[in-house]
Amino acid sequence: xxxxxxxxxxxxxxxxxxxxxxxxxxxxxxxxxxxxxxxxxxxxxxxxxxxxxxxxxxxxxxxxxxxxxxxxxxxxxxxxxxxxxxxxxxxxxxxxxxxxxxxxxxxxxxxxxxxxxxxxxxxxxxxxxxxxxxxxxxxxxxxxxxxxxxxxxxxxxxxxxxxxxxxxxxxxxxxxxxxxxxxxxxxxxxxxxxxxxxxxxxxxxxxxxxxxxxxxxxxxxxxxxxxxxxxxxxxxxxxxxxxxxxxxxxxxxxxxxxxxxxxxxxxxxxxxxxxxxxxxxxxxxxxxxxxxxxxxxxxxxxxxxxxxxxxxxxxxxxxxxxxxxxxxxxxxxxxxxxxxxxxxxxxxxxxxxxxxxxxxxxxxxx
Amino acid sequence: xxxxxxxxxxxxxxxxxxxxxxxxxxxxxxxxxxxxxxxxxxxxxxxxxxxxxxxxxxxxxxxxxxxxxxxxxxxxxxxxxxxxxxxxxxxxxxxxxxxxxxxxxxxxxxxxxxxxxxxxxxxxxxxxxxxxxxxxxxxxxxxxxxxxxxxxxxxxxxxxxxxxxxxxxxxxxxxxxxxxxxxxxxxxxxxxxxxxxxxxxxxxxxxxxxxxxxxxxxxxxxxxxxxxxxxxxxxxxxxxxxxxxxxxxxxxxxxxxxxxxxxxxxxxxxxxxxxxxxxxxxxxxxxxxxxxxxxxxxxxxxxxxxxxxxxxxxxxxxxxxxxxxxxxxxxxxxxxxxxxxxxxxxxxxxxxxxxxxxxxxxxxxxxxxxxxx
Lengths: 366, 373
Hints:
Chain A has helices at residues 12-24, 44-58, 99-112, 133-150, 205-213, 231-240, 254-266, 281-290, 309-320; strands at 70-73, 79-87, 93-94, 97-98, 117-128, 153-162, 170-180, 196-199, 246-248, 269-273, 304-307, 329-335, 342-345, 351-354. By secondary structure, chain A is an alpha+beta fold. A seven-stranded mixed sheet of chain A has the order 9-11-8-12-10-13-14. Chain B has 17 helices and 13 strands. In chain B, the strands form four sheets. Chain B has a five-stranded parallel sheet with strand order 2-1-7-8-9. A four-stranded parallel sheet of chain B has the order 4-3-5-6, sandwiched between helices. In chain B, helix 12 (223-239) links the parallel strand 8 (216-218) and strand 9 (244-246).
């Protein structure tokens, strides 16, 4: 890797960049006195809130790395993964799925990408007075269908009703438990320079589908959410690439955000190739029109995997043979430098940074 | 999106860069891109480091969000906080800091602030909520002003009385003139704004070569557009020409869009003066509603503080907007002022030079070149 002589004349800019980099690595600070939508967007503001409020109060060894799912060891030595998620998407139904599908897929996918086989879910409903029972039945039927397909059972639940106006129709929270097979170990410490970054399919479908389904944008395109359970595809990957280092599902915040988490947690560089990132043409078109970067748009049925280079081809071939992995692609690599940063080689031949998202102009998407 | 790929072709880019490098020779040349959309493209596609180091792009004042002074944001927040008002704004304006917070914080405190993609969406909200007052926060150059004008014409035609516009539209020529008159800047030419020129055409820029002796090439927004326009500027310099040229001829006509200009003239008139962030008061540089549209003029319908708020002392947005300093040369860039905690407007808008540089451009040239293929 090129070494930069930062003391050389003409490198004043370099010195500024280094100062900024040091600044970026500091713990995020919560400066706001009230919650704003940015705190829910999965970017820097969310990180600051979690750090300053939740980690500060709950801090423990399981929570500290902020995994999608906590891995817990039983006295017998067996390991469980445990995760929770809440769902407030509007509209409840969108091309490709509904809040019911999301409520199951969101939690089982968090378990799957932590290496677990999802087994049991809980479901809690917050219902607004006046919510139509037919709508509720339809959402619950979607949950049942999704749970069946993901081979999990919904084994406990809760219902609360709040006054009209105190909630926006329907909120769902699910928690899930999965069993981690012996010998599996995924995580940032295993990632090495030279490793390959894969995505399991096209990105940005879910977020754009929901945005267009809201109908505020007077824009119509045939874009469907990718909401799907990932457990089976994760098993396919781990069989073909047993040394898989790291897995994440790029939901809120998209591919750009999970790659930033990867770069931060490994202190390595993630270098992505724009032209290799699979995006449905309609999604590219809608994003271009709206000035939205597909790298930051949510997915609900995709994962990002880091695998060693000698297992990358086998992993891709196996994933592409599976129905929801058909568009799987090698999108980048892990490098030593510039540490902690995600760089995109642009389709046009330049390079740019992909940073953590700051604000979020997008409506609720999960 | 084959239409776009055509303008992002790496092989064509390499050929253009080779031509630019050859024509530039050993001279250090500085070209200003006037438009924030260009700034965004330049960083988003990594154009700065693809160009030879001696061909420097200086970022100009054409970011409509960046030039709004803090006092106007405070006025907007005052209107938005009026009971019964639904305040609508382009998303970019939501995080622009005023003297006391931004619209997003006003929303969190209870103001009904909604983001829209078009003033027509705001008018639709007014029609859907006849019991509420809907105000649209109009910002932008001649690019967005016609859609505001059309919306006002429609509101009048349909007799919509619960809709008004807080007008902050500005015009493109006065700030270019202000920059050319500024003593602390040496430029070799301009990349003319693309979208604005679809409306105003190329004729208004003739004073740039004629009175100031600088070439100007109106450019499109894809990476190859920018490179092609730079090559055209170099052609002019090497051939001893100095004129207005149009690289973006697939969209921009010399005479502009006469219908849009007619609509602008029907609805708006020039303000005697308007404060620009960083550039100060510039006479005849902004638009207000004509008296016939007074019933839809939020400035007449609402009490606004109308107070001039000085920029924070540390903020150097003015110098950035004029191209006098690069974003990273600002004292607070990247530390006190980041996209998450913006002090100045240039760090807020995705078209602002500081935000574009921070979000996309923070790479050493050497690292960038080593990673490029």
